[in-house]
Amino acid sequence: MLSAPPNPRRQGAEAGSGLLSATFGVVIFCGFLLVAAQVLLTLHRTTLVASAAADSAQAAAQAHGPGDHLCDATAVATAVARAHALLGPAISATATCEGASISVEVAAPRPRLVGSFGTPTINRTATARLETRTRTT
Questions:
Q1: Which contacts (CB < 8 Å, 24+ apart) does range 34-39 have?
Q2: What is residue 116's predicted lDDT score, i.e. its pLDDT?
Q3: CB burial readout 72-92, b (16+ within 10 A) else e
Q4: Relative orientation angle of helices 73-87 and 17-61, to the nearest 10 degrees
Q5: Is the distance from CB of 102 to CB of 128 less than 8 angstroms?
Q6: What local confidence, expressed as pLDDT, does residue 63 receive?
Q7: Could you point out which of 90, 98, 108, 114 has its C-alpha 20 to 30 Å from the C-alpha of 120?
Q8: Could you tell me the sign of the dihedral formed by the alpha carbons of 27, 31, 36, 42, in that order?
Q9: C-alpha 72: how far from its chain's center?
Q10: pLDDT tens per residue, the chain (137 residues)?
Q11: How far, CA to CA in Å, does 125 sit from each of 20, 53, 54, 100, 107?
């Protein structure tokens, strides 16, 4: 196949035009990649905080032996200690007794890659009912 010889006037006018658009494309792609990574890290941390709150409430509900139906300082301390054991010392955990149940609130810092989206902390609350277990003999 024969092709026409290149036109020198046409090449000079388009020289370097692809470099600018390619650079903008790469910058925009990297921006979307960072936002996607931020969303995934936030979803992961949110799941961990919710799971730790539920696990802490369950551990507090089971802190006493069979037949006991108490929500006291031991149950509260167990809940807070379990939350700190699961997520580390950088979190805030509080437990409160409400009748025959215990409520555990866990707050953890939101991961930051880009900017500051949303609130700076992730707050999750879980409630567990204190069950009365009877001994079988």
A1: 34/113, 34/114, 35/114, 37/113, 38/111, 38/112, 38/113, 38/114, 38/117
A2: 67
A3: eeebbebbbebbbebbeeebe
A4: 150
A5: yes
A6: 78
A7: 98
A8: positive
A9: 30
A10: 667 666 655 555 666 668 888 999 999 999 999 989 989 999 999 999 999 999 999 988 887 665 566 778 888 999 999 999 999 999 999 999 888 889 999 999 998 887 766 788 999 999 998 776 665 65
A11: 50, 6, 8, 17, 9
- Helix ranges restricted to H, the chain: 8-14, 17-61, 73-87
Question: What would the two tokens of residue 78 be?
Answer: 């167990």
Tokens of 91: 């979190």
Closest CA to 75 of 91, 94, 50, 92: 94
Q: Which residue in this structure is represented by tokens 């003999």?
A: 137
Residue 104 forms beta bridges with which residues?
95, 126
Q: At which residue do the structure tokens 């036109």 appear?
A: 7
pLDDT of residue 11: 59
User: Residue 117's CB: how many other CB atoms inside 10 A?
Assistant: 12
Contact yes or no for 60/72 (Cβ under 8 A): no
Tracing tokens 């700190």 back to the chain, one arrives at 84
